[in-house]
Fold each of these.
Amino acid sequence: MAVPKRRISSSRQGMRRSHHAIKPKQIQYCKNCDQPVIGHRMCAACGHYKGREIMPLDQKEE
Ligand SMILES: [Zn+2]
């Protein structure tokens, strides 16, 4: 089994972990109804995506 030759110093460990922070989710606004939407997702309020209706939400789905 491969084993590290040298101990990783806390400084190096910190340098590696400097990339580990998570960013807040980007919020876009629906072109149709101006509700906040997560990018690359259909609008949950009106069922639109890229300016056209994908899923009509008025009538209930089976
Ligand atoms: Zn919408």
Amino acid sequence: MILLYDHPLSGNCYKIRLLFSLLGLEYESKSLAVTGDRDGDRGEAFRAKTAIGKIPTVRLQDGRHLSESGAILWYFAEGTPYLPDDRFARAQVVQWMSFEQNNHEPNLAAARQWMSIDPDLHPSAEQIESWRLAGSRALDVMERHLSAHDFFVGDRCSIADIALYPHTEMAETGPFELGPLPATRAWLQRMRSLPGYVSIDA
Ligand SMILES: N[C@@H](CCC(=O)N[C@@H](CS)C(=O)NCC(=O)O)C(=O)O
């Protein structure tokens, strides 16, 4: 059985739970701490399995481990409709997943972690403003694309959408507003309508 090292509030872990649910894949889940004494939960045994030491990490059925949400999504989407076959479309999936990791997640997830998850975080006003500005720019890029397209690559949901969904859906738990982004709100609704969709707190 696949084992997902997980946390119920983690947007990065939720990406994996969402893909597993859309694919109807069975798995077990083990929750690790994301605040406070993280190292207590991620001692030598965990680090021996994954050099990166973060969640999500999965243990495959054959015992190998894989970390980084994008790599895990790619591994399980291969051969399914969530990863296209076409060479250019696959490169576009990488393009949007790189955007998610570089421009989107670092700002939206950090701001949410500070506002609604970790009371011990005390970022400076400059840091908060930097997350807000850069995260808003990433949301604007998405809005522009979604004003002309139903999904990020091609005409159906791919792992590019799944990677971008969690922290966009939860953006308003940080210093962001989805009200002025109608195309993004319509896309969130399309994602929620997918057969097999699960919410973060399912
Ligand atoms: N780029 C990674 C980020 C993973 C990440 O930051 N995981 C967080 C939980 S969402 C974590 O393990 N934080 C605890 C720590 O950094 O020690 C991904 O997309 O999987």
